[in-house]
């Protein structure tokens, strides 16, 4: 059996905020014991709604946010035990593509400089070699080297996202964590970027951890999918199994809520009541129980463990 | 029967110091009583400007040409005062961002009560009672307490419910909804769409729904208008649009969408990007990105041709047959 490239065990991030001198500290459980395994060459997606902790999970894996607890094994090494110099070295193999292509590129640097920076940071090549690599990379993502002297504001959203991908790719990483990389784009541009990401994955044998709220995009790009709700993974399965036989009541509701672009189809929709509770004050037991239509007594008191229901389909629910 | 809303040859231009930028180029559309018409397109296609033109909410440096008739009455020749009497009363609007479109300094109750007092002449107590009733209708729990809350105390879904309650306050005949669910999570979007359908069916409201999401269109609309670069490129009955899309842009848009129900190897992306306003192509505006572009497409912009009783398309692929 192949070794996983990334293995996250019981990853936890609690943000604490203190309001007032005498008040007790408030704990926001943004990520609450997430386990996740990613094998080389596959695309694993984390999907969930705003505030479920999917982005925080992505950032904790890179230690851009310092996790509160848990282990992050990347290529047989626990990232959490590394000091800063070692961490920087490790990050050469794990890069991030950000959501907002407008906010994630330095407006005062040219595209050439933006793409060269990671090479400089990691001390790769001479100036001429770096230039060559930058020119090659900009071509790979579908832009031309004449554009290297331009500034980010001269590019459209889709082009900027190509630049963001080029910057992540220039170090030839093994893992790319893509945090909502196509959410800010129009659908025709979104399709271009998704195709590009799939081509690059084949060409460079990349592994993706893809974070998104869009269930259709996730279905398209993923091999396996993890559904998060309120800081916890509630269901993990391979794509086919998850979309065809969703087991957790939350996953079922989430999938049924997506409007399908087919006027002939009349799906029976499961409408969830109310909003997601605040992660500062999550419900006891199963965190989904106040909105669940199958809620039982046990759900209110006991947290359901993530169990393997069928082959490689894991669900955290008391229902059988 | 007169149409609820009839826009003919609308041309909206922004007047700048040196130039006039025409954002909407000859848009014509009709919304019949009780009908929901969707306007779809990507960023910058002019769908929002079209809706703001109807409401005349675009400010001073804007020139509106053509005609916008509401129940047969020309809106473009009304004075500001006359328009104010219609806005929020007979035509109401739901905006995309419920955070920025509610006033953060006023309570929910005051904001919903304002059109009630202004247009319907209710007194404070009557307005309060009606507000509570409206909030209950849109499914807000504890309505009696919520009216004293400020917008920041509510979640995104709740704020959008408040927006809908506010829009429905004077039971408008026409509701313009500009990306009403775009800022919301998918489970909350499902709640809001369900609510809009309920409100529509109870009051027989006509809706002009502006969206970029073809899934929302398929679910809500009777008829659809596809816009590209400030022009209508296709108009069709909703089933027709999804079954037999005529315009290459509409087909491209449908092909670009990843599906929730099937596995696809690759998406049929549309190459390139939307042209800038200052650099509009001379011929068909979609020609530079069109896989089926011909010689004529690069030189001459086609008219919006009637293909059948229920379908129109702006494309030379169909124009040639017409000419023969």
TrEMBL record, chain B:
GO BP, sorted A to Z: peptide transport
Keywords, alphabetical: ATP-binding, Cell membrane, Membrane, Nucleotide-binding, Transport
Location within or outside the cell: Cell membrane
Predominant location category: membrane
PROSITE patterns: ABC_TRANSPORTER_1, ABC_TRANSPORTER_2
Alphabetized GO MF terms: ATP binding; ATP hydrolysis activity
Domain of life the protein comes from: Bacteria
GO CC terms: plasma membrane
Protein name per the record: Peptide ABC transporter ATP-binding protein
Membrane topology: Peripheral membrane protein
Annotated ranges, domain ABC transporter: 5-254
PANTHER family referenced in this protein's UniProt entry, alphabetically: DIPEPTIDE TRANSPORT ATP-BINDING PROTEIN DPPD, OLIGOPEPTIDE TRANSPORT ATP-BINDING PROTEIN APPD
Family, similarity comment: Belongs to the ABC transporter superfamily.
């Amino acid at each position: 059996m192949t070794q996983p490239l990334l293995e996250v065990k019981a990853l936890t991030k609690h943000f604490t905020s203190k309001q007032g001198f005498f008040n007790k500290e408030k704990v926001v459980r943004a990520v609450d014991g997430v386990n996740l395994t990613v094998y080389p060459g596959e695309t694993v997606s984390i999907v969930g709604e705003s505030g479920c902790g999917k982005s925080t999970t992505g950032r904790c894996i890179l230690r851009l946010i310092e996790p509160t607890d848990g282990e992050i094994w990347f290529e047989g090494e626990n990232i959490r035990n590394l000091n800063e110099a070692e961490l920087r070295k490790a990050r050469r193999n794990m890069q991030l593509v950000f959501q907002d292509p407008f906010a994630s590129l330095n407006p005062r640097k040219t595209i050439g400089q933006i793409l060269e920076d990671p090479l400089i940071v990691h001390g790769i090549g001479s100036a001429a070699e770096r230039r060559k690599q930058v020119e090659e990379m900009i071509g790979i993502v579908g832009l031309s080297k004449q554009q290297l002297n331009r500034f980010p504001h001269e590019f459209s959203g889709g082009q900027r996202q190509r630049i963001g991908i080029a910057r992540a790719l220039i170090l030839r990483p093994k893992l790319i964590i893509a945090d909502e990389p196509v959410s800010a784009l129009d659908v025709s541009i979104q399709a271009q970027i998704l195709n590009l990401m799939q081509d690059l994955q084949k060409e460079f044998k990349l592994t993706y951890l893809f974070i998104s709220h869009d269930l259709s995009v996730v279905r398209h790009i993923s091999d396996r999918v993890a559904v998060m709700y309120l800081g916890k993974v509630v269901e993990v399965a391979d794509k086919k199994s998850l979309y065809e036989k969703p087991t957790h009541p939350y996953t079922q509701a989430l999938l049924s809520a997506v409007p399908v672009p087919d006027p002939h189809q009349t799906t029976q929709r499961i409408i969830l009541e109310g909003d997601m509770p605040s992660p500062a004050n999550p419900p006891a037991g199963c965190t989904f129980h106040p909105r669940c239509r199958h809620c039982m007594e046990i759900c209110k008191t006991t947290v359901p463990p993530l169990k393997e229901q069928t082959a490689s389909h894991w669900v955290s629910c008391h229902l059988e | 029967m007169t149409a609820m809303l009839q826009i003919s040859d609308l041309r909206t231009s922004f007047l700048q110091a040196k130039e006039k930028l025409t954002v909407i180029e000859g848009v014509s559309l009709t919304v019949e009583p009780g009908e929901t018409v969707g306007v779809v397109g990507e960023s910058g296609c002019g769908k929002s400007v079209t809706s703001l033109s109807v409401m005349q909410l675009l400010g001073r440096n804007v020139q509106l040409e053509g005609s916008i008739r509401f129940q047969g009455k020309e809106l473009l020749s009304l004075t500001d005062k006359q328009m104010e009497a219609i806005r929020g009363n007979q035509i109401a609007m739901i905006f995309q961002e419920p955070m920025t479109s509610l006033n953060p300094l006023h309570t929910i109750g005051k904001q919903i009560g304002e059109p009630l007092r202004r247009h319907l002449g209710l007194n404070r107590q009557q307005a309060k009672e009606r507000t509570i009733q409206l909030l209950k209708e849109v499914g807000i729990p504890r309505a009696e307490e919520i009216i004293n809350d400020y917008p920041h105390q509510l979640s995104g879904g709740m704020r959008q419910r408040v927006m809908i309650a506010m829009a429905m306050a004077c039971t408008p005949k026409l509701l313009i909804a500009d990306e009403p669910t775009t800022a919301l999570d998918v489970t909350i979007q499902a709640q809001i769409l369900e609510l809009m359908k309920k409100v529509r069916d109870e009051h027989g409201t006509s809706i002009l729904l502006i969206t970029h999401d073809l899934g929302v269109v398929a679910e809500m609309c009777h008829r659809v208008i596809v816009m590209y670069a400030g022009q209508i490129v296709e108009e069709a009955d909703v089933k027709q649009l999804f079954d037999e899309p005529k315009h290459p842009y509409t087909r491209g848009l449908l092909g670009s969408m990843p599906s929730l129900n099937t596995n696809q190897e690759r998406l049929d992306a549309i190459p390139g990007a939307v042209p800038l306003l200052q650099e509009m192509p001379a011929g068909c505006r979609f020609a530079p990105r069109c896989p089926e572009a011909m010689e004529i497409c690069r030189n001459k912009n086609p008219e919006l041709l009637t293909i059948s009783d229920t379908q129109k398309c702006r494309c030379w692929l169909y124009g040639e047959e017409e000419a023969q």
